Each structure stands twice: as structure tokens, then as C-alpha cells.
DNA sequence: CGAAATTTTGACTAGGTTCAAGTTCTGTGG
DNA sequence: CCACAGAACTTGAACCTAGTCAAAATTTCG
């Protein structure tokens, strides 16, 4: 196993409040693993044996309903910890995480969590903040699904993706990984068809630029107005 | 201030892993406060100055949208900690908590959190588990809102309420606090009218018994079947 | 008893799904 | 290098769930 370079991860939120030596101790327990595009990092209802930190790539986390529908819980970007089922008191993963592009993650065996979390309470505190902010996100999504119509939900979803993983290009801000209309549908509780119709209409109005598994926000400001229910 | 009786709270999940002396230390920083029915414990966007543990009563936690719609985030039952905004890295409360019946809570000033959480990592770990389970709940709700029709969402919401705060009565399981059709609507992303229609239909079929701000599940099993999408 | 809050019910409407083709990409293998 | 098969996307038409609008009935409480 190649030594992990602390400088790559020292500035991440998870490691705040730890000295370089402590960071080395934590990193020393991890292995770096590569996940090719399409591979699962872990699967829903599987025994949770590890927790993770994404170094490169993007993951799509989704839940499968009994009747086979998928709902996208979130996308994970580099620097985020994920799969911390054990810290949350669970024995299985609540969702499946799959690489949408070739990805690399640090992997810790669950067995080291008790020692690390007792030795370094800052690690616990940082994890609590991360989980807390995801709770906020999830509750915001519940509010949106309860009160907003599809077009506004799509606007909010795209703005979140752009903020999280947007890349500036000449024509605007492009989502930095392959994302289909179906994916957007599974993030917003709409159907593929409705998402396609909405994006087509937006494209006619110059708000976005479509493409196969590609979405570019041409006019983020007007999309924001749409999301907030103003203008149209 | 009357001394707080440790025996009342020692068995709660938050205090697991602490010795009686440590529990006394934590409790010693808290005050017991009474909230009459209808009073707010804290308000959305208010500076977060305290965190709480509910001793008696029931709280309704809701978020208000810019256009004035309310969405119920959750109901809090005795024994639960809440309002832990600071531990989550927030400076304001993300929602409003109001007493639906006369209630009593332990109140800690935020200022004591850094010391307590550093001194007793178990407190951090327990809080992380609590927040984690709320994250699961919120994500489950997102999945339900994305994939289920109103009738099933209402069934799920009532079953959750019954599990959390159900009281056995002769005719079935009654929700143990006043809850209106409007409240159920705000929990499920439906309208008052739709909830009323669904509950009326269920009452005709003998599944529930209605009443002003009162709901009794007469046949929890058949409601469960409904929630799971089987029979009807 | 009267006023306010809660609940019920009817009629109509509409946003979004479903059903059904058809079109446009993209990567692969001959 | 081009043909082609599969995947992704688009679009039209019919339909339906749940929302909206409107009004009345019931309950509670001062």
C-alpha cells in the first residue's frame, strides 16, 4: 500500500481540530481504493463494514423502493465522508453508492471507529456537523417536495448540483459529471418525461443547454428566480 | 431552581455511557422550563442560544416557507433532545418548535456544550446517533414523497405517529396529543381537503375513528397493508 | 347563544403522469 | 470508417390524482 499523502486531505472539514500527527494516525488506518465508473462502493441493506472519504470522482447515492423505483438521495463530491453507518448506530447501509465516473476513496474498517472516535473527539464533532448539514438538506428537500411544483423543484435541484459540482465553461456553468434526465427525475420526484419537457422549454428560453447526460446552466440567475417562485 | 432528579432521565439514550456522577454534572448545567400549550420553545431563524431535552408533553416542529406555508418537520416526544443547532454547526434554529400540549423541557445554554462535549465524548456519540436516525427518517420521507400517492403517505404518517406517541384505548390506538387534519396535511404534503376526504373514507371502512383534533387507528394492520401498497 | 375553529363535501380544474411513438446520440464491431 | 444497436432524449395525446374554489355542517368555548 502506498503511503497516503496527508497534504491532500489535511484541510478537509473532517480533519479540522486534529494535529498533523493525529491526522497521520487516522490516515494510517485507511486504504485507498479505486472504483471504476458504474461500480458500487456499497449496497443498500448490506452489512456495513467500512466507512469512506471520497478523494476523486463522483458518487450517486440512491435508495431502491420495494417496487423497484430509484430515488437519488445525494451526490457525493471529493472531500466528503460517507457510509458512516456505524457512527449512526446502524449495522447496514441505508442506500447504495455507485461511482458515476472513475473514483477513488479512502476506506476505513469499521473496527477502527471506536478507537479513533474516542481518541479524537474532534472527529466525532466534525462528523456530527456533516451529518447535521445533511439533515438540513434532507429536510429542505421535504419542504420543497411538499410546497413546490415540479419546475421549481428541478430549478432547485440543478442549482444545488451546480453549486456542489459546477464547472465554469464559456456558455455558463456545467454539471461536472454525467447526469441524465432520468437522474434529475429521481432527485425531484418527477418523471423522466416531465423533466425532459421542462428542460426543453428552458432551452428554448435560453436558460440551459442540454445534451446527452449533460446539463449546462446558461443563466443561473434566471433559474434562481424561477426556483424562488419569482419571475418566470 | 429545584434540583433535577437524575433517575428521571438516566436511562435515556442521550445519557448512555455516562456514569451517574457524569450525568449529574451534565444535568447540573440545565434548567427545567415549562411551556404552556401553544407557546414556542424556539423560533425559526432565531439565534440559537440553548439546546433542549423534552421531559413532558409534545412539541410540533415546523418550517415556514417564504409564502407562508407550514411544513411539519417532526413531532417531539418526551426523552428526546432537540434544538441542538450549535452541535450541528448552525447559529440559528432551522425551524420553529411549539408546544401542542403543556410541556416541560430541560434547557442548557449553548455555552456549556463545548465543555460537556469535550469532557464526555459519549455525549457526542449519542447525539450523533440521534441526528443520524433523524437523517434516516427525513430521507425515508423524501422517498415516500417521491414514490407514493397521498393515501399511502397518510397511512405511513399515522403509523409513525401511532408508534411514537400512540396510546391504547378500547377502540384501537389513539394519537396521544391534539392533531388536526391540517397538521396531517402539513406532514404529508397534501391539502387539508384531501386528508379529510381520505380519513372520511377510512372511517366508513372502519379503519380509523375521527374527531376534532383526534385520530384513533381502529385497524392498524389494515392501515399498514395500505401503507405498504398491498391490499386496500 | 354566538363566534371562531375545525371538519366535511361537492363541483370543477389542472399539473403532471401514463401511454405510445419517434428521434438523436454514441460507442462498438465488422 | 461506417453501420447499427442500445441508450438517452423528445414529443404528442389521453387520462387521472389531487388541488382549488365554494359552501355548509359540526364542534368547542367564552
From TrEMBL, chains A, B:
Transmembrane segments: none annotated. Residues 14-99 form the Cyclic nucleotide-binding domain. Residues 148-221 form the HTH crp-type domain. GO terms for molecular function: DNA binding; DNA-binding transcription factor activity. Keywords: DNA-binding, Transcription, Transcription regulation. One of its GO terms (cellular component) is cytosol. The keyword Transcription regulation applies. Pfam families: cNMP_binding (PF00027), HTH_Crp_2 (PF13545). Gene3D superfamilies: Jelly Rolls, Winged helix-like DNA-binding domain superfamily/Winged helix DNA-binding domain. This is Crp/Fnr family transcriptional regulator. It comes from Aestuariivirga litoralis.
